[in-house]
Amino acid sequence: MDELYETNYIRQLQQWSPVKPTGGSPSVPPQVGYCFHTPKKHPWRPIMGYEEIEVTPMPSQPITNTMVDPCYTSEGMATEPLRFPNLVTGFDRSPEHAARAALYTRYTQHEWTQNSIRNYNESDAKRNFSERVRNDIMRMLRETDEIGAQGQRDSGRKIGERITDTTFWRNEVAIEMERLVATCEKLSDTRRQLERAVAGVEGPLHVAQECLYHREKRQGLEQVHDTVEQSLLKEVAILRECQDKFRNMLEKVRQQSKNCRATQHELESDMRNKEYALGIDNMCHQLNNFSKGLQFYAGIERYDPTVSDAQRWAAASAATLQRSQSERAKALQMLSDADNLINVAATEIWDQWSNTNNAFTRRIAETIEIKNKLQLHLHKVQQEIFDVEKTLELLNKAIEDKLQPMKVAHSRLQARTNRPHLENCRDDAQLRLVKEVCDLQETMETLRSKIASAEGTHQTLLGVRASLEADLRNKSSTLFIDRDQCMGLRRGYPVTAAIKS
Q1: Which of 45, 345, 361, 432 is the most buried (most CB within 10 A)?
Q2: How far is it, in rounded angstroms, from Cα 186 to Cα 184?
Q3: Beta strands across the sheet bearing 9-14
Q4: Residue 212 — left, alpha, or beta (φ > 0 → left; ψ -120 to 50 → alpha)?
Q5: Using one digit for the tens of pLDDT, what is the confidence trace for 137-169?
Q6: What is the mean pLDDT of residues 113-124?
């Protein structure tokens, strides 16, 4: 309440007659309303009425002079003893009339009896009403208790259902995450295997290129575009093609590994959120009326921090699992493709490697065969050259042997030219000597022509021998390149182990 009371109005029972206050009496409260007469007139009672007057405000606690020192009393506080109105409140207005009005305030016995009966009836009615109200209140209390208990049971059941759903999805996410982690490990193994395959192709490719470089050192007609060179070129093309396939597959595997890791991070985040939500829901499910730490949070029912409903939540969880399953299926398919690619490439490389080795083997065999034939022909040419040289010696000796008979014949002819006069005739001896000389000269010319022919043959044979020796050297060089250098590199190289390791 404030320091001053609000203005109140009371109705005092008195006869309506304006009376001025006397000098020694207290001031009469001013009239603030109208006068109202009694609704029922009695022949034995004067007419009475009601008048609205202003009541002077009093302090919040009645204080008398005996309780408060007047010097410390605040302004406006009444320090006079309290004065209560008389039975007839109009004493101060009209004392003489108040005495007469008091004689007519008596009630009859019937009124007194009716008043008691009315009080009894009113008591019974109020008591019955109070009992009905109390029964209604008890019923309402039972209903509210039942509503509260039922609401708590329903909330607990709903929270339990929510825990079951969250646990189901949590387990599904956990199982899917384990499968995805295993798939990611397989992808990592496949990635490392592809990296080793890419690095492993470098070895056979280097060997094939070295073989081509070595075969470029062949001399003369040995630089033929044979089946070995064709196989080597095809092998280099296959190795480069397989290496490009390995690199493309390696890039795909790396990208798929990134996608799987992103999906794994999403599953881990979803699983952490579900674990956190399960902890909260389990704590809420265990709360009861006797739990500790219960508090009131005003307006919490109007605060809605949710961002989705149950359908969207389940759809989001299913979508997360579906994305993971899709990425895992792609990863498994990629693993199968990578394994198939490695096996097919290794088989293809090994087949071409074997074909090239077989071509080398055949070429080496052909070269050895040709070399042996060349050596045989060279031996024959050498023998022929030796025979020609011996023939030339015989021819020269034959010419030398013809010189003495030629000298004898020339000497005879010279001596017979000294015969005198008619003795110097062309007789048979002379003719025979001339014929002998002519025969010897013809024979010597024939021998000299044979020597020239033999010398030409000898020079031809020397050229053939030089050609055969040069070809034989080329064949030996080619055989050394193919058999020792190239096959020495290829024979012990583990091409399949380098790719499948």
Answers
A1: 345
A2: 5
A3: 9-14, 49-54, 31-37
A4: alpha
A5: 999 999 998 998 899 899 999 999 999 999 999
A6: 89
| pLDDT number for residue 298 | 87
Residue with tokens 């209390």: 141
The span from the CA of 451 to the CA of 217, in Å, is 43
pLDDT of residue 495: 66
At 486-501, the pLDDT tens digits run: 888 888 777 666 666 5
Q: How far is CA 275 from the centre of its chain?
A: 22
388-423: per-residue pLDDT in tens?
A: 999 999 989 988 888 888 888 888 888 888 888 877
Question: How much is the pTM?
Answer: 0.63
CA distance 339 to 344: 9
Dist. CA 207–CA 486, nearest whole Å: 8
Provide the residue type at 403 as one letter: L
Cβ atoms of 16 and 35 closer than 8 Å = yes
Say if residues 482 and 357 touch (Cβ distance below 8 Å).
no
How many distinct helices (H) and strands (E) make up the chain? 7, 3
Q: How far apart are CA 274 and CA 325, in angstroms?
A: 19
Collapsed DSSP state (helix, strand, coil) of residue 74 = coil
Look at residue 78 and give its three-state secondary structure. Answer: coil
Element (H, E) at 427: none
Return the structure tokens found at 71. Answer: 């010097």
Orientation angle between helical segments 428-479 and 310-416, nearest 10 degrees: 160
- From residue 425, give the alpha-carbon distance in Å to each of 376, 417, 434: 64, 9, 13
C-beta of residue 54 within 8 angstroms of C-beta of residue 9: yes
Q: State the sign of the Cα–Cα–Cα–Cα dihedral 132, 138, 142, 147.
A: positive
Which carries the bigger pLDDT value, residue 90 or residue 432? 432
**CB of 348 closer than 8 Å to CB of 496:** no
- CA distances, 386 to each of 373, 381, 454, 462 (Å): 20, 8, 12, 10
Q: What residues contact 329, with CB distance under 8 A and at least 6 apart?
A: none
pLDDT tens for each residue of 279-335? 999 999 998 888 888 888 888 888 888 888 889 999 999 999 999 999 999 999 999
Task: Give the 3-state secondary structure percentages of the chain, helix then strand then coil, rounded to 5.
Answer: 75, 5, 25
pLDDT at 49: 52
Question: If you write DSSP's letter for every residue of 239-291 in order, what string do you get?
Answer: HHHHHHHHHHHHHHHHHHHHHHHHHHHHHHHHHHHHHHHHHHHHHHHH--TT-
- Name the DSSP class of 33: E
Place of tokens 């070129």: 233
Among 373, 371, 392, smallest CA distance to 480 is for 371
Question: Within 13 Å and on the Cβ side, how many CA atoms surround 35?
Answer: 12
